[in-house]
Fold these 2 entries.
Entry 1:
Amino acid sequence: MIVSGRRGAAALEWRVRDRAVLLDRPVVLGILNVTPDSFSDGGKYDRLDAAVAHAGRLLADGADGIDVGGESTRPQGARPVAADEERSRVVPVVREIARRYPGALLTVDTTKSEVAEAAIGEGAHAINDVSALRLDVGVAYVCARARAGIVLMHSRGSVATMGTYADAQYGDDPVADVLGELEEQLGFAESAGIAASSIALDPGLGFSKQSATSLQLIAELARVAALGHPVLVGPSRKRFVGEITGEAAAAGRDAGSAGACVAALERGARIFRVHDVRTARHALDVAWAVMKVALPIHAP
């Protein structure tokens, strides 16, 4: 069995608290934004009953888990949220989803240690930190103490700017730049006590990246996978998908997003954060079946 965190080897599982998330098939996380201002679905699920009902629909459509977010990083006009406000949005939803759907993988999208600690206390298995621990190093220590999983996503700048092009300047090899910055945060996460097997990496498609850079990252995603950690991607409804398909409305980009997921799957991604679970699930399952015929993939 290949051990997670071994450079150059594909990770076959992701350890998150009391469970091992097997990567012997694509893992799909349904996006649940409990914010009033998310770029795609802001305000639809900012009430507890609506949020939990939507989580149930995502799971019924084939999601393996739910990623709950209480602070928007939208491309235009993202507004930082105080920890108390974010916690009040996220924690009741996490508590209720954990109670109703105990078998579901539950992750929380936050950059704040206070929110991370409260969410883990209510049943979250992992923290999805879109700053890769840059904005609050305390998130690392919270995850280490709880033996929770963590996703380190590459980005630059603040919550207000990371969804823009303000810091989207890279050198001749943008993938190498992203890898270098991710590896630095990876080293910190391990030094803080997070087990290598609990760390997943996300190249941050669309975050501090122009469309050409996001496409290059997908094309060369094997370089990220070669670091030996599970790779998560989140192309769902992103601007670069709309530029390719001509869909100006975020909700019209789901088919294109599924195409990006399939391309990423073929290059080593195993965890996919999406809005339209049903479309992504079907596309990924068919692509995975073809991949297993072409090159047999053995479960751990």
Entry 2:
Amino acid sequence: MSKHIFYLLLIAICVLIFLFSCKTTYIPIKVGEKSEHIKIDKLYENTIAKELKYNMLSMKMHAEIYQNDQKNSFTANLRIKKDSIIWINLQQYSIEGARIVITEDSLKYINRIDDTYFFCDFKTFVQHYGLDIDFNAIQSILTNAFFFYPCNNNKNMIDNFKNCTDPTLYCISSLSKRKISKYYSESQSDTWEKKLEKEFKDSLEYNPNNDFVFQIVKVSPDIYKIINIVLENYILKQSLSIFYNKQSNKFGQLFPEEINIELNTTQLKAKINLSVENISIDKENLKFPIKVGKKSNEINLFYKKD
């Protein structure tokens, strides 16, 4: 596993790495059972109620990552202590390649192949790569939970969402259908580019309250699980599409069996397909080791941008 792939994984993990596949009963999403009249706040409450309930989470995942014409496969052991720490061990051919630990304040990375490591402030990392993400968003993506984009833990933000159109799924968006359609239709025009430039200059820096950032969430009508999340940021020219495919029943809770992710930023275009070979909830004595070897060398992960 090359050093470049580790860097790619770190960036991708901070915007996405996801979750669950357990070989149990598959529950298909039913078509045509969507209620025509459900209030957005009620949909939000029902979706939150169906989120995974856990204190400790452990799983083994198989992942395939595609960038340009290259494909790389790896195994990841993932552990989460809710609202506290995310621990990831990456392997190829049963050989440990790296460990990654993410907390609200820090990011720690160890490369076992060349005995190097990198520790930094988490906010510094995401700002360097132009990512609008926080610990809660990563944890939510990993556990098929609802989160707000731009990142905000205030549940009252749901009051800003509007209904959007989908033939079989409940669909809500942080922008109206009219604005979304307008953005998509004008996004390639010279006039639109001028609007973006003016907005950026007026704000001096990225303003999370502007109209150039939005989120679409689609929810299954029968089981109230999130099936698709789309995040768009026209100022930073980044988007993330996450598809949660298939639901399985284990421990009396539902989990997606498959996840497909498409990430587009100014620095990275990638696709990641994930599945989990096994999963456990609230396992006792779950540990999160991140020890640096005595001969390991510190590296600068903030390589120069093109």
